[in-house]
């Protein structure tokens, strides 16, 4: 949940950008971006009061670190919009690769082939 939602401030789709950043960071690191707390309310306080999580620069590409940073800016007004993020270098890094995921999933027998 984005800091502005927790604080009861105005929020909108830009709050979802915060969530996107946290989910992508968690997928990349394999752990939740905030340390475990005693209870849920302490976690909410940490989201509002602690610095935003970040991707460690010694473990990830500059493009990835920048993407995460653009998503998890504490102030909603400082976060990049979905439109801007769609052209972020991290998302366009491999645009020139010709990969047919549908064929891959179909040939592997994956249930994802049917979506």
Tally the beta strands. 0
Structural class: mainly alpha
Mean pLDDT: 91
Tell me the name of the CATH homologous superfamily.
Answer: Transferase(Phosphotransferase) domain 1
What is CATH's topology name? Transferase(Phosphotransferase), domain 1
State the helical fraction.
40-55%
> Count of DSSP helices?
7
Query: N-to-C SSE series?
Result: HHHHHHH
Please mark out the parts with pLDDT under 50 across 5 or more consecutive residues, or reply none. none
What global shape is seen?
globular
Tally of discrete structural domains: 1
Classify the beta-strand content into a percent band. Answer: under 5%
CATH architecture: Orthogonal Bundle
End-to-end Cα distance, whole Å, is: 29 Å
The main sheet comes to: none
Radius of gyration from the alpha-carbon trace, in angstroms: 17 Å
CATH class equals Mainly Alpha
What does this protein structure show overall?
- The model has no long low-confidence stretch (mean pLDDT 91).
- Helix 2 (13-29) runs antiparallel to helix 4.
- The protein starts with a helix and ends in a 7-residue tail after the last helix.
- It is globular and about 45 Å long.
- It has helices at residues 3-6, 13-29, 40-49, 62-71, 82-85, 89-92, 101-108.
- The protein has seven helices and no strands.
- The protein has 115 residues and is mainly alpha-helical.
- The relative contact order is 0.14.
- It has a single domain (3-114), classed as Transferase(Phosphotransferase), domain 1.
């Amino acid at each position: 949940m984005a800091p502005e939602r927790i604080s009861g401030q105005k929020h909108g789709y830009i709050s979802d950008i915060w969530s996107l950043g946290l989910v992508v960071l968690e997928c990349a690191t394999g752990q939740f971006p905030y340390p475990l707390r005693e209870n849920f309310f302490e976690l909410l306080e940490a989201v509002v009061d602690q610095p935003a999580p970040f991707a460690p620069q010694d473990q990830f590409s500059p493009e990835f670190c920048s993407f995460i940073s653009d998503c998890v800016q504490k102030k909603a007004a400082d976060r990049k919009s979905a439109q801007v993020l769609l052209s972020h270098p991290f998302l366009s890094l491999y645009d020139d690769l010709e990969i047919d995921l549908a064929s891959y999933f179909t040939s592997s027998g994956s249930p994802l082939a049917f979506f």
